[in-house]
Amino acid sequence: MSSAVAIRPPARPDRAESVVTEGRAVRWGLTGIAILFLALFLVLPLVTVFIQAFAKGWSAYFAAFQEADARSAIRLTLLVAAIAVPFNLVFGVSAAWAIAKFEFRGKNLLVTLIDLPFSVSPVVSGLIYVLVFGSQGLIGPWLIENDIQVIFAVPGIVLATIFVTFPFIARQLIPLMQEQGTAEEEAALTLGASGWHAFRTVTLPNIRWGLLYSVLLCNARAMGEFGAVSVVSGHIRGLTNTLPLHVEILYNEYNFVASFAVASLLAGLALVTLVIKSLLEWRYSADIAAGARRH
To answer: 3-class DSSP state for residue 110?
Structure first.
């Protein structure tokens, strides 16, 4: 006589308990430290900027933007970003496409060079441009003879901004393109599509959210860059001062309300960037996950 023995599957452990082994006190302690750190070093300074900006009311706040120097700084900041971001967009997409889709000699060197601005201080990068394009620099005398001014002018500010921001687009797109592979492009080429048509109809739609995300970060950094621009600008009021430099000048002159008012404009840009970044980051992660599922 045989008897059947029912085998009950082991109870499924709670997901949080199966992953997290620390006690409740440790988890709450770490969470509290993180929240305290963010409150002291991020939230509190940000709130202080807006409190100081509106310390004397709305009229004083808006008066800070009516000055000719402030308007000039805003125009220059927008102009520099409008030039630097498209340049970095073309370079970033081209570099990411070449690195992710092709094999060639010097590929690792190219990736290393793209990361160079992350490891070099912005002040040092600005000094490099002074040593190259300054009046006593490598090609400075030739520029003076031909009446071309780079340092202490808009071209120098644009060059310094491009240098410190050009990794942002390429470094965001390279892993996304690598995850997607080359199968879809090869299929399009097999069906008779040209390289440009394959890029426009296959590659570009697959990277659109990552591309928007990287352009947003690049633009935010371009508009907020201080170190490199400070070295090459010459701090000429009304001519070569961007918004960050204008904030510094106002603060050094003890014009605190105007200084914080202009700073709040940059802080507001940062907050808007953060919101849009979170939305695009979600779509960017979804693109990577979709590419992984396909391959």
So the answer is: helix
